[in-house]
Design brief:
With 209 residues, this protein is an alpha/beta fold. 22% of the residues lie in helices and 31% in strands. The strands form three sheets. It has a six-stranded mixed sheet, covered by helices on one side. Strand 7 (114-117) and strand 8 form a beta hairpin. It comes from Domibacillus antri. Pfam families: Lactamase_B.
Length: 209
């Protein structure tokens, strides 16, 4: 299985495409829906689902275009069930991006669970702190964690937006992420990939864990 990082939109939000053969799932199609759809078609990929780590505007801007183009479902955590439709909640109004919206998600995640979509299996972690409904998807077979804006190379997600909580974010990282194998690749919502081991060694926010 292969994953591809595609930075999209003015904030260079990382969209990830995880593929197996010609089937794939899409994480956080944040913007530039036509560009993303063209890339998928050029690579002869068949999307099976859109998996959202959270519903801030820069992670959802191309959701509706991709959903309608490929007729696939969208997954989101229950704590942000209303955010797709609401520019105040998803922050697009707050940052002057215009009203960015999408139709309600097709599947609502309420508990930490195993998620199986086609050939892909994930362990879901509810990792609030950056936002109340932040979800992280652990792809054990590939040793990769799709972490959204919870953990970055050398940093952590901002917590000054509505629903943010700095201590809760640190708790999420400590109890969920740092319990994973140290060689786990962390695929963040912005910036380069890193690893659990690297962040344990050098991330100043994780000192003392």
């Amino acid at each position: 299985m292969d994953w591809t990082q595609l930075p999209l939109g003015p904030l260079a939000t990382n969209c990830y495409v995880l593929s197996h053969g010609k089937e794939c799932v899409i994480f956080d199609p944040g913007s530039e829906g036509e560009k993303l759809a063209e890339w998928l078609n050029q690579n002869s990929l068949k999307p099976l689902a859109i998996l959202l780590t959270h519903a801030h505007f820069d992670h959802i801007g191309a959701v509706e275009h991709i959903r309608q183009t490929f007729h696939i479902p969208v997954y989101i955590h229950k704590a942000e069930e209303q955010w797709l439709e609401n520019p105040e909640l998803n922050g697009s109004n707050r940052f002057g991006m215009g009203a960015i919206t999408a139709a309600p998600a097709d599947f609502i995640v309420e508990t930490e669970e195993e998620l199986e979509i086609g050939p892909f299996q994930f362990k879901l972690f509810h990792t609030p702190g950056h936002s109340p409904g932040s979800l992280s998807y652990f792809f054990e077979e590939g040793g990769a964690l799709f972490a959204g804006d919870t953990l970055f190379m050398g940093s952590i997600g901002r917590t000054d937006l509505p629903g943010g909580d700095h201590q809760l974010l640190l708790d999420s990282i400590h109890h969920k992420f740092l319990a994973l194998p140290e060689e786990t690749i962390v695929l963040p919502g912005h910036g380069p990939a890193t690893s659990i081991a690297s962040e344990m060694d050098s991330n100043p926010f994780l000192n003392g864990f």
